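Need tokens for this chain, all 74 residues.
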Amino acid sequence: MSDSDSEREGFEAGAAGSRGDPRVLIAMNAVLSTLFAWTIVWGLSFLGVLEFGLINVATAAIVLFAITYLVTMS
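Here are the structure tokens for all 74 residues:
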């Protein structure tokens, strides 16, 4: 077994045993949900379906955040 194989096994064991810091996951979820919501609202605004505004982006971000949180924590 080479040195790189033992490093790979050690990394896989460490990654499999680590759940990570939940605060980092929540922060990433918030940022990505906001960016995705901005993109969705902008696209719908471009199509004339929805008005682009802070309230619409915030509402979409909260909905996406909640859905993502519920799906990943179950």
